[in-house]
Design brief:
The protein is of the alpha/beta class. 36% of the residues lie in helices and 23% in strands. A 5-stranded mixed beta sheet has the order 1-2-3-4-5. β4 and β5 form a beta hairpin. α4 packs parallel to α6. The chain is globular and about 45 Å long. It starts with a helix and ends with a strand. The N terminus is likely disordered.
């Protein structure tokens, strides 16, 4: 589904609350079609594989009930318990961690809104808290580096 047609299928309130500005820019109203939007509530831990397993399970459950756009919370992928853990695990957007989530979106034919990913910064001591939007084909469509870190 193209971005414009996907945005058109969302209820106005869902688009207004969306963090993805790209959806707001292309949105137009269509009363004929709607898509289910899901919001995930989860407790992330300091284990990338455990968090991915949780995200994968929740994505599959959402797909089973017809969700086409699923929103994950801040630190969905990893939450460190010690200073510097997140910085050490940070990766670029085209790294293996994000590729797993791109594959998950593709396998589920679902857009994923990933609330806060530890993106590697320009040097080893810096990371970005990046919101990532992945389309149903597994392509990163938009990212936003939050400035509060």
């Amino acid at each position: 589904m193209a971005l414009a047609s996907f945005a058109a299928s969302l209820p106005i309130a869902a688009v207004a609350r969306s963090r993805a500005a790209v959806l707001r820019r292309t949105m137009y109203v269509s009363a004929a079609s709607q898509a289910r939007v899901g919001v995930v509530q989860m407790t992330s831990v300091g284990d990338l594989d455990a968090n991915y397993a949780t995200c994968s399970r929740l994505t599959k459950e959402a797909a089973a009930v017809g969700v086409k756009f699923l929103c994950f919370p801040e630190v969905f992928s990893f939450i460190g318990s010690k200073d510097g853990e997140s910085v050490r695990l940070a990766e670029p957007l085209d790294g293996p961690i994000m590729q797993r989530y791109c594959s998950l979106a593709n396998e589920s034919s679902m857009w994923l809104s990933l609330g806060g990913f530890q993106e590697k910064g320009p040097d080893d001591s810096r990371q970005y808290n990046t919101h990532v939007l992945i389309d149903e084909f597994g392509k990163v469509r938009s990212s936003y580096r939050k400035i509060h870190l």
